[in-house]
């Protein structure tokens, strides 16, 4: 694939991602508007009747339907006379004198149908049909509840989409900020000395760790605490005590870790204080095994000029404890990079090459990233407007 083809593909990928995010935002905003419209319509319908009246009719219908279901078997035919009396008293008391209740004719018709000396299952079925107009008020309240839940869900979805948009916007803004660097700057003049130093210091620390006594390594780690830009994890207190007091502290860490795996009888032949070794070295195995020269390295992209200058000064003071002159010279070379007039330019260019992949760089260089950033910001503004609409709380 040619460089031009790669750039075009990168633009297409960036545009596709942004277009999908914009489309989702528009969908979420439209879903929220539609859900609010449905809720508004059903609320207006309830308001035109009266909230109390709708609730009264729905409540009366639910109770009447429950009574029909409960007594149909016992109050019909030649069944339980006591059940028949209870049903008549309760049901007729519920449906009578409901002139002020919506669907009052439905309640009245059901009452007249069941005000008989003897009831059949067909009478109960007929009463259910009579009450159907009142069921509409139950449905009205159910529709309002469903609409309110739909609004709540649409809000949640819109908020999640807004967060995703914010992340996308921040990412593309970062692309542009990084991509403003001079991508043709000779970054190797900055990165090569840093990588050479990093490789050297890691190798030398590994040798120091493998061959020096645990006392020497712990002493070095203690010394780093006076240098805030070199962030080794402090040795645990009991490990410090072991390194300072144990007769086995002149052994290298890998050897002590190997000893810690021995059985008691075997360890007696190798360690002068087997019990202390097992209760200290073995307990801190993870800490000891994770020690590396990484805290002594310089990051890529490197830190700002002054921070790197101070870090290099600390490193020079520390490296004499185990590193040779060549490695110390390398860190001095890294320190001297901060004196370059173009350090900031090289650092920004290094950051761009380190943090952006080929597609992202292509999107920045072609202007696609800037255009898509504006589209994403516009979509977010419209989504926020939808969230801040009637009944919304962004």
From TrEMBL:
Q: Basic and acidic residues compositional bias: what residue ranges?
A: 20-30
Looking at the record, which segments are called Disordered? 1-30
Q: What is this protein called?
A: Uncharacterized protein
The organism named in the record is Halobellus salinus
What taxonomic ancestry is recorded?
A: Archaea, Methanobacteriati, Methanobacteriota, Stenosarchaea group, Halobacteria
């Amino acid at each position: 694939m040619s460089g031009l083809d790669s750039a075009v593909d990168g633009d297409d990928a960036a545009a596709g991602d942004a277009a999908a995010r914009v489309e989702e935002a528009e969908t979420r905003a439209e879903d929220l508007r539609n859900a609010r419209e449905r809720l508004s319509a059903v609320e207006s319908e309830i308001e035109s009747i009266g909230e109390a009246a709708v609730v009264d009719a729905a409540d009366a219908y639910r109770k009447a339907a429950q009574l029909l279901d409960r007594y149909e078997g016992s109050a019909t035919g030649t069944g339980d006379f006591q059940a028949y009396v209870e049903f008549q008293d309760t049901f007729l008391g519920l449906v009578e004198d409901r002139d002020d209740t919506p669907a009052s004719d439905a309640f009245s018709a059901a009452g007249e149908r069941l005000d008989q000396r003897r009831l059949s299952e067909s009478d109960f079925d007929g009463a259910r049909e009579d009450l159907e107009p009142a069921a509409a008020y139950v449905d009205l309240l159910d529709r309002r509840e469903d609409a309110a839940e739909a609004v709540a869900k649409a809000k949640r979805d819109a908020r999640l989409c807004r967060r995703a948009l914010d992340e996308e916007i921040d990412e593309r803004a970062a692309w542009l900020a990084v991509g403003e660097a001079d991508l043709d700057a000779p970054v190797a003049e900055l990165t090569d000395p840093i990588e050479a130093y990093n490789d050297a210091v890691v190798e030398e620390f590994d040798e120091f760790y493998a061959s020096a006594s645990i006392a020497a390594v712990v002493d070095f780690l203690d010394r780093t605490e006076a240098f805030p830009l070199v962030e080794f994890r402090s040795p645990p207190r009991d490990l410090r005590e072991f390194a300072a007091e144990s007769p086995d502290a002149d052994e290298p860490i890998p050897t002590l870790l190997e000893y810690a795996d021995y059985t008691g009888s075997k360890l007696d032949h190798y360690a002068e204080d087997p019990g202390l070794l097992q209760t200290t070295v073995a307990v801190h195995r993870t800490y000891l095994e994770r020690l590396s020269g990484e805290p002594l390295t310089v990051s890529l992209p490197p830190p700002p000029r002054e921070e790197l200058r101070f870090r290099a000064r600390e490193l020079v003071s520390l490296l004499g404890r185990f590193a040779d002159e060549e490695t110390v010279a390398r860190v001095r070379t890294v320190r001297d990079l901060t004196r370059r007039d173009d350090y900031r330019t090289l650092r920004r260019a290094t950051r761009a090459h380190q943090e952006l992949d080929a597609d992202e760089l292509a999107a920045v260089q072609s202007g696609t990233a800037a255009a898509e950033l504006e589209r994403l910001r516009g979509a977010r503004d419209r989504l926020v407007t939808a969230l801040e609409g009637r009944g919304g709380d962004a």
